[in-house]
Design goal:
Layout lengths: L9 E3 H6 L4 H10 L3 E4 L2 E3 L5 H8 L3 E2 L1 H7 L10 E5 L25 E5 L13 H11 L2 H13 L5 H7 L21 H13 L4 E6 L2 E7 L3 E6 L7 H15 L3 E6 H6 L1 H14 L8
Parallel strand pairs: 5-6, 9-10
Antiparallel strand pairs: 1-3, 2-3, 4-5, 7-8, 8-9
Helix pairs in contact: 4-5, 5-6, 6-8
């Protein structure tokens, strides 16, 4: 007989009954702690991430960045718990926390409310990838939302036209520049840098081929900008990057490496330094 985690991380009572569970077995599993009762007729295994359990316990579903994270989309360093409710729905109150002891395990994380577009009759524990993206554009930095949407394209969860349609009618502040979402970047950080360069009006060639190497961004003929996501550029990868820099540097190229922190927390400084390099003509240096 299938276990809950073999089918979906969060299930309704009807789902469990359809899997062959009896009401007595459900009750016994809750009493033993093998199954958590999130709210009336909603259950999950203790292994389900806290943000997902809390979203259901509070009467909503997993939304925005939390939903995107559950699909494997890039979400940066966001640690908040994003809960989605029907518009004008019955949003759970903090006073209900006593019914769900695990909700007290927030560890400094903030519960962020979102409202889905229109009522959805389907009983599901999380928003669709497109709705998660739409909610994120309404509540987060546009660059981060673009990088998240782009990762959805890269994973095959959505397409760029899907995203553009989902964003129609939203405020002008969520406008997406042409070419900012297509699934081409290799990482969310790379997509974010691409968007920032577009936003800053800095021309570039994405994934240019230089001396047999593919670089993240080539400005002019000799200025290379590379992104260093902390999860990819340690150990052996670090040594590969240094070897690339040596090859490019001795061929006359100037390489600028940008870390996650630099891009996300201090892009203004990054942009100033890139513009200063352009003003010096570093993008027009002779190469071999």
């Amino acid at each position: 007989m299938p276990e809950p985690h073999d089918v979906a991380p969060i299930l309704t009572r009807d789902d469990l009954l359809a899997l062959g569970w009896s009401p007595r077995r459900i009750t016994a599993a809750v009493r033993s702690g093998d199954l958590l009762r999130l709210r009336r007729a909603w259950y999950a295994s203790p292994a389900v991430p806290l943000e997902q359990r809390i979203a259901i316990a509070w009467g909503g579903r997993v939304g925005a960045v939390s939903a995107a994270r559950s699909y494997g989309m890039w979400t940066g360093l966001d640690r908040d718990i994003h809960v989605s409710w029907d518009p004008h729905g019955n949003v759970a109150r903090p006073g209900r926390r006593g019914h769900y002891p695990f909700v007290k395990e927030l560890d400094g994380r903030t519960i962020v409310p979102h409202w889905r577009r229109g009522r959805v009759g389907e009983r599901t524990w999380r928003e669709s990838p497109l709705e998660a993206i739409r909610q994120t554009f309404l509540s987060l930095d546009r660059g981060l939302a673009i990088a998240m949407a782009d990762s959805g394209c890269r994973l095959g969860l959505v397409t760029a036209p899907d995203v553009r349609r989902a964003l129609r009618g939203l405020p002008s502040r969520v406008d997406v520049p042409p070419g900012a979402i297509d699934g081409a970047p290799d990482s969310g950080l790379e997509c974010l840098v691409r968007f920032r360069l577009l936003e800053s009006g800095i021309p570039f060639v994405h994934h240019a081929k230089v001396h047999g190497l593919e670089v993240d961004f080539l400005l002019g003929s000799s200025l290379v900008v590379e992104t260093d996501g902390r999860e990819f550029h340690t150990g052996a990868a670090f040594e590969v990057d240094r070897a690339r820099d040596l090859l490019l540097g001795t061929a006359g190229y100037l390489v600028i490496r940008l870390s996650y922190r630099m891009v996300v927390q201090d892009w203004a400084t990054c942009a100033r330094r890139i513009l200063a390099a352009l003003e010096r003509g570093d993008h027009l240096r002779p190469t071999t």
